[in-house]
Amino acid sequence: MATLRLGDTAPDFIQESSIGVIGFHSWLGNSWGILFSHPADFTPVCTTELGVTAKLADEFKKRNVKVIALSVDSVSSHLGWIKDINETQSTVVNFPILEDADRKVSVLYDLIHPNASTTNTVRSVHVIDPSKKIRLILTYPASTGRNFHEILRVIDSLQLTEYHSVATPANWKDGDDVVILPSITDPDELLSKFPKGFRSIKPYLRFTPQPNK
User: Fold this and answer.
1) How far is CA 209 from the centre of its chain?
2) What is the pLDDT of residues 23-35, one digit of tens each?
3) pTM recorded for the entire structure
4) Which sequence positions are flagged as catalytic?
């Protein structure tokens, strides 16, 4: 399959997981989703990542985000790994881990990078919106743990900008000022959309308080 790009429809699939068979699109329903892949079970960096993800369950829930992990190992292996994660990370894994021994999902999501490894999936994150469109793709080397606070920050930005005519500047975090889209120039529309007012640095660079706060 060709490389997935932002805006593409996330491929659907039916696959075994640690909680049973999952039809991906049906399982997502009207939620946002995170699909993140792991080279193999019982790997140290990924063990810490799945532990952090479990601890952030409430943060994902309040953002209407479902999380699902993937590893090429079997369900029985996943179940043993989950016990280790729960023990070593002092948490309870509360999301499914897909089995992908047949590499079906790995191929659909372009997770095998031969120059990195001929067998193991790369460590990628896909953020998917309720219309099943891919909104973010991040790929990490095996040696670097993912920053899930950054992933939450991006989801906050995606959800904010989905429903308001704004974008988020560098290092933005929830509650900070945002920038008004340059395409909005009509004074009445500006007043209607941004009743809190705005400050103009340049005609194309205008800051306004976060609209949904």
Assistant:
1) 25
2) 999 999 999 999 9
3) 0.91
4) 46
